[in-house]
Amino acid sequence: MNASHWILGPGAIGRLLAHSLAPTCEVTLIGRRALPLFQTLHSAKGERRTQSITCATPAQLTQGAPAPPAWLHITTKAMAVEPAFETLHALLPATTPLVLWQNGFLTQPELTNRWPGPVLCASTTEGAYVTGNDRIVHAGRGHTFIGNLNGRHTALAQALAAQLDRAGLATTAVDDIRRRLWQKLAVNAAINPLVAIHGIRNGELRGAAYASDVEAVIREVAAIMALEKIVAPDGGDEQDSWRALVWDVIEGTANNKASMLQDVEAGRPTERAAILGPLIAAARQHGLTVPILEALDKALAKLEARY
Ligand code: KPL
Q1: Which of 57, 115, 246, 262 has an alpha carbon 20 to 30 Å from 64's alpha carbon atom?
Q2: Smallest Cα–Cα separation from 200: which of 124, 160, 260?
Q3: For residues 273 and 275, what is the distance between their CA atoms, to the nearest angstrom?
Q4: What pLDDT was estimated at residue 182?
Q5: Which of 122-131, 142-151, 164-173 has the least mean pLDDT?
Q6: Which residue, by CA, sits nearest to atom 6 of ligand 1?
């Protein structure tokens, strides 16, 4: 068996990681409630794989006093990272490498500065969703990038990328994870708030009713990215590069119910603080006004206040 991995947050990405690593590594999936031992993964091609995956609550781990893991992956939503991490903190040597799998850019800088051990951030385009307590669907294969925000821990990032790659999740260690997290955040900011507020699938943003709103968000996001010196994935720093990126993702995910819409429908807090928060904060720092992003943030806050 390879190194042991604790995976905190049994959502779709957490369970996808557990399924992938379990055949070759010691894996513990950690969540607030117990999950069935036998977990099934359905692939997009209709294949099915059931395997036993050790699941535990933080209380059970605390009682059992297990050996600490080689890796702690935190796969909760951004706003759940702090309370979830608090439940395990006392069990972890300060040298334990953390791997943060959140969208946006909220907890990544915070934990990178605070945790004494190595902190790696992951940005993934793997597509998965939960269909029950004991099953998930791996809807689309993607790519995962792993790196440290300060450009440190290169060998560790490479070792983890190799492990994940061997486990079937295409992964590359990178030295520009900050840029990649902000690129994803730009796309999420242009899609997620609008579809969550209007209750629509991603593809509906192409219609006349919403396309100009998307364009307005892209203009503000592109202005922030320019000030933050974040180039688009095609290397361009013009608004057109961001427009092309966002509309490509809308096209490619036209049938998707975006994660923020799923959160609103389920009455869960959204990731607005992790996605819109860093953009609005950066705009303020640069003295830029972003009325559209601020209005989206307010509208989401109002929606969340209803549940
Ligand atoms: O990542 C996404 C999400 O749903 O959070 C997008 C890109 C918007 C695709 O649905």
Answers
A1: 115
A2: 260
A3: 6
A4: 98
A5: 122-131
A6: 258
The encoded tokens of residue 40 equal: 């099934």
- Say yes or no: CB of residue 192 within 6 Å of ligand 1: yes
Ligand 1: atom nearest CA of 249 is 7
Tally of CB atoms within 10 A around 277: 18
Tell me the catalytic residues.
Answer: 184
Q: Compute, in angstroms, the gap from residue 250 CA to the centroid of ligand 1.
A: 9
Q: What is the C-alpha separation between 249 and 231, in angstroms, rounded?
A: 17
Indicate which residue's Cα is closest to atom 5 of ligand 1.
259
Span 45-101, pLDDT tens digits: 889 999 999 999 999 999 998 899 999 999 999 999 999 999 999 999 999 999 999
Backbone angles phi, psi at 62, to 5 degrees: -60, -45
| 78, two tokens | 């951004």
Amino acid at site 284: R
Atom in ligand 1 nearest the alpha carbon of residue 262: 4
Among 163, 128, 182, which Cα is nearest to 13's?
A: 128
- Written as six digits, the tokens of 191 are 């899609």
Give the pLDDT confidence score for residue 276 in this predicted structure.
98
Cα–Cα distance, 218 to 223 (Å, whole number):
8
185: its two tokens: 């955040």
> How far is the centre of ligand 1, averaged over its atoms, from the C-alpha of 77 (Å)?
13
Atom of ligand 1 nearest to the CA of 103: 5
Share of the chain above pLDDT 90, in %: 92
pLDDT at 1: 55
Nearest in space to 237 (alpha carbons), one of 182, 167, 171: 182
> Can you give 25-56 as a three-state secondary structure string?
EEEEEECCCCCCCEEEEEECCCCEEEEECEEE
66 within 8 A of 45, measured Cβ to Cβ: no
Domains and CATH numbers, the chain: 2-175 (3.40.50.720), 179-305 (1.10.1040.10)
- State yes or no: pLDDT of 257 exceeds 80: yes
Q: Write down the mean pLDDT value for the chain.
A: 95
